[in-house]
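Write out the 3D structure for:
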Amino acid sequence: MEQKAVFRTAPWWMLIARMILFLLVQLIVAAILYLAGHSDPWAESARWWPFAVLSTNLVCIGLLYVLFKREGKGYFEFTQFHKESILLDLVIIVCLIPFVMLFASLPSQWLAVKLLGSYEKATAMFFQPLPIWAVIVAMAFPITHAFAELPVYFGYAMPRIEQAAKSGWFAWGISSLFLALQHITLPLIFEPNFLLWRALNFIPFALFMGAVIKLRPRLFPYLMIGHAAIDMLLVIMYLSL
């Protein structure tokens, strides 16, 4: 009975799992820096957030594998392409690209100006230089991200919360909200306006992606690929530092 109860609550725990894992990895990095004698280990740990993403993604992929297997399902069942509608799906994806880019960029830029004075200040706090070896290792994070973030919130949590709460739109709203809020601890920088910027800037993007997946689930694999492409731009930004 206890094991069944754990799996019934798993979708709810997965909503906050990534936020907690980001924080745990940053704590570990800060502890290592402290032991190495760094004068401000917490501030220094923030620059290593790509490793928090990579580590969290690997853990989440493992958790999803276990959770799906527990239900007698495969991890890739919801990420399969549908051959009978592939042309229509591609047309829809092409039409959605401008909206995805809009929701991924404009809210972030607008909020950065309102909360921090400029987008450049926000990105300077977020994108801090890393050694080239670290950037090369971090190049794996967009690939793992595609198989972790959207699958956690919309592939696993959303349909199960919908079943439990008897409300599809509630499940969509709460899953989208926590996808956005996870960024508070990626990285956790104790500056109120930066925290608010991180908490709010992905809400429009999360709501949009969640709505697309809810209304047309067969677009899921295309959105995963697109998500990886967007994240690869972050790696390119690091290479330019």
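The chain has one domain: 2-239.
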